[in-house]
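Narrative summary of target 7.
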Amino acid sequence: MTTAATAVQDPQLPGDQPVTAASARQVTKAYGAGETRVTALDAVDVDIQRGRFTAIMGPSGSGKSTLMHCLAGLDTVSEGRIWIGDTEITGLKDKQLTRLRRDKIGFIFQAFNLLPTLNALENITLPMDIAGRRPDAAWLDQVVTTVGLADRLKHRPTQLSGGQQQRVAVARALAARPEIIFGDEPTGNLDSRSGAEVLTFLRRSVDELGQTMVMVTHDPVAASYADRVLFLADGVIVDEMHAPTADSVLERMRRFDGKRTS
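Modeled conformation, tokenized:
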């Protein structure tokens, strides 16, 4: 595990083939000043591997959502540097950052964020339509098949179950072939069965489509679908786990809770 004290170099050097989808170096995020200053992230170093599924976990207030928002360029950092692929996003101007998020990043949120007047296919292609880009027909067909929506493309959101609506949101994030997808509690509004369906499709998007996935979750079962789990506490990455199971993640979280209350 990389810690704040570890000496690190820039994640991409000239001529190197990128091996990470996102990287953070000594990233600090603080709110307020003086006695009211709150440090949400404290000199965090992390690499997100390309083509892998990473879950971020931690108790409430640990900084997990803040880390995801900073990595995705949705929030600024107080100190440190962040890269998406080989592009450093810290310091980019608003227009450049907007373009990068549009072209290289996909988002899946707890709320489905579908337009009720559009059918499933129109919701999936909406970001590309706004950008004036035509979807790759073969890739779009593969995405739709992977998330199991081929027979639901003409249905509007009100005609779909919660799990199907979230699958539309997953397909929308995948359709533009982003370098990385960030999910913020993507199954938080779903029942266990629908949540399992969506997590299975996220897993398949990594295994079958080569996608890179980063998901913030509080659910050990959801985290068990990932290749790697990062554990945050008090704005610091305190541990990580590879090939997690729901039981092993739950046990690790219990240990953290015990340390915080002792």
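DSSP finds eight helices and ten strands in the chain.
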